[in-house]
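Protein modeling request. Please complete all fields; requests missing the sequence field cannot be processed.
Requester role: graduate student
Desired output: 3D structure, token encoding
Chains: 1
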Amino acid sequence: MADSTARLSHGWQPDRIREEAHRRDRWAAGRFGLSMILALGWVVFSIWLSLPWLSDLGGLTHPLAALFVLAFVAYVPGFMNAFLMASLVLRPHALRRAPEQWPALSILIAAYNEEALIGETLRSIAALDYPGALQIMVLDDGSTDGTAAAVRDAEALFAGSSGRDLLLVSEKQNRGKARVLNDGLALAAHDLVVTIDADTLLEKGCLVALVEHLYASSPETAAIAGAVLVGNQNDSWITRAQQWDYFHGIAAVKRMQGMYNGTLVAQGAFSIYRKAALVEAGGWPDTVGEDIVLTWSLLRMGYKTGHAEDAVAWTHAPDTLRGLSNQRKRWARGMIEALAIHKRLLVAPRLRTMFIWWNLLFVSIDLTFTFAFIPGLILAFLGIFWLAGPITLLVLPLAALWNVVIYRIQTRMLKRNNIDMEKSLRGFLLYALIYPLLMQPVSVWGYLAELTGGRKQWN
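Delivered output (459 residues):
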């Protein structure tokens, strides 16, 4: 690992920037410890307060069953909310550094039947204000529609631009996202690689932000995940709810993980990587969650991963319940894949190891909510508080508080970057009240599909 770190950092950062990055990493350990103490204190308080209910539920069922239900309905979610809240409050200001010379970037865009959206994506790239050269590769994975023709139509956007090269790489038949990305990696001419989805629209300054975050990070940082928001929020009630999931839930978790150099998913929709680290990791694995497994490979190799909260891109979110369910099922399967492949991360002596356990605990949380809490809600409406009782309400104040905090953080970020985002109040109510009740059973579906060997596909 020492050799690979030296290879990544050589010639990239001045000594003073590397020293400052390492100092910030040491401070992160202190924030981690304080957040952990506060979160564990909340858990102790919750357990003390719930002892009568735990006793009653144990009498109705079994003491171990009662403890399991309360642990994953109240104690563990309470711990997660408290740790997230403390981390957000204690977060440092994001550090960015402009390089003396802007590096050239290779942009990989995997595309399969994206005729309707690929043109807009390429137009957003043509409008970027990035000072360095860009090698843009559309990796057409055997599309049966007019994707290739749409890319050729967009060639005129780059014809008069110096340092903007558009290349179409077409496969004769569908081979899978990981394989075409690895083909693109082999063709990448530059040391830094950016991946975006074929339906991702980029803000003008997003590549500048990605590079500046990477330049200010520790030399061991191999990947930085960008900030992905929903661009088609007005398409349906499903997209309105997802707007808040990305703006609140996903953004809060990525900010927290990035503070501790352990962002668990450098998502394929918009992230930057060091090419040397990608090659060392063997590229993207042929799995359902190729970006999840790749990120965990980098972490397992000892690299760090970060998050650029102000490098904004807009994704085209699924606009039907079926489409959303299939997407979240894929995400759940990807997490199980990553856990199965990278079990050793669970015992790695690093701060960010906790986030691997965090994901593992989500399996138990989703199972408990699906088979205990949701039925318990139905019983509670009938006046029977066996499974969903007063103690579960303890989760709500913390959840509400961190939502307020992340709303303020995200709103200020958008304002600093002169980005307008229309917000839907109806979407927030759906996100807060209905969305979890739908998505947690879907996640369970994904876990079971992976464990039973269901068919895998990327699109």
